[in-house]
């Protein structure tokens, strides 16, 4: 089965629409959403409705920290993120808020574990910033592949049976086979707010038969997404950073 895996959509309608179209053109048979459907962006109602519809059609989804903050305010968010969540909370309907609140922290599917942040303590919303962070996550599960988001920058880590770690930044559109002799942590880039210097939206395709993961980038109308943020009175920094991919 060919999976299309999305993380950190952040209510960016233009980016998520472009990624969904690209994934379907690549033959995606199932959708996986790794959390943070909302936050930062200007189209939370559309984003939640879209993910709800995908889940109704068989997609998998887990909760992210911004999704969680809609019902449980967080003290760990910066001022711009907090302002966006407060605005988002007022835009979502009760069924939309309930959908986000009821998403699981993790989902195990075959030999894959899906989580927003990392596997050792999913509810602490830790970032995988480096190899020790990745090792902690890999050691917390027996899954062959853990897939996460949260940090908005693509990366791939693996651990050998002797606990030797490797790490690298995957090249766009170059498949990487996740060999069975190692265990893997695939960190996805962000659909709606990339932070690796490339403003193009990011997602990944995973082939469950060949065990190959391919990181994908999709150009989209960044200006339109930024204009929507400004037009809704959200902090302008949230619009400006889209243009820089940071």
TrEMBL record:
For this chain, one GO molecular function annotation is:
phosphatase activity
Domain Calcineurin-like phosphoesterase positions: 1-210
Identify one Gene Ontology CC term for this UniProt entry: cytoplasm
Which InterPro entries has this protein been placed in? Ap4A_hydrolase, Calcineurin-like_PHP_lpxH, Metallo-depent_PP-like, Pesterase_MJ0912
> Organism's domain of life?
Bacteria
What Pfam families does the record point to? Metallophos_2 (PF12850)
What family, per the record?
Belongs to the metallophosphoesterase superfamily. YfcE family.
- UniProt name for this protein: Metallophosphoesterase
